[in-house]
Amino acid sequence: MEKYRFDNNTINNVFMLVMNHDCFVLGTSKKAIKRVLNKLGIELTNKVIAMRKCDIMAQSQYMREEKLAELEEVKNKLEEIILENEAFKISDLSINGNDMLSLGYKPNKELGNALSTILELVIDDPTLNTKNQLQQIASKLLTDSTICGKL
């Protein structure tokens, strides 16, 4: 694509679409969809869904209706996640970097890793996404990493 002078954004988007065109084969649960959203963002996730639909239509008739129904389920859950403002990226968390700094984190990779860990927990259990609960989790992560770092 560079040979044809496509801009870097287009090249990156095409690469991500090709690499993730079958990502919903892994599951249609809200957790799986949020992980795809975290990796690709809303726009590319919608493009993956559209590309997957085209892919299904280009394949044999075998189980086409089931595959399309499953893809429609993914699309509906995606809309639900967006409408309900469910967390799928770090900025969706009820805690941010400043909160982490006030808990004693240093502005380094450890802080980013802790936020990523917290996001994974929230994706698995959305009820955890309250400031109080996330501060408790962050404090425990900090304590655990401090203990592990001293061993």
Question: What would your notes on this structure say?
Answer:
The protein is an all-alpha fold and 151 residues long. It folds into two domains: 76 residues, no CATH class; 61 residues. It has six helices and no strands. The longest helix has 29 residues. The radius of gyration is 19 Å and the shape is globular. The chain starts with 7 loop residues before the first helix and ends with a helix. The model has no long low-confidence stretch (mean pLDDT 89).
DSSP summary: helix tally: 6
Helix fraction?
55-70%
List the helices and strands in order. HHHHHH
Residue share in β-strands: under 5%
Major β-sheet annotation: none
User: How much is the average pLDDT?
Assistant: 89
Shape: globular
What is the β-strand count?
Answer: 0
End-to-end Cα distance: 50 Å
Q: Total domains, how many?
A: 2
Classify the secondary structure makeup into a structural class: mainly alpha
